[in-house]
Amino acid sequence: MQRAAEIGARTDGRHNATAREILVELAGLVASGAVEIPIAAVYPLDRVADAFAELEQRHIRGKIAPAP
Asked: pTM above 0.85?
């Protein structure tokens, strides 16, 4: 928690905030570039089994995302 305080991160929950308020805040942080979400791989839906196989390896850095 000390490191969180050093960088200004909150470690206590925001029980009085709604899920919508939190999502709006997170979307704003992502849109502004303040938060970056690394994408390790993108799979089309017809290759979802391949995506799960990669997840099972547990060697990914970032998120695996479905492609439309």
From this structure: no
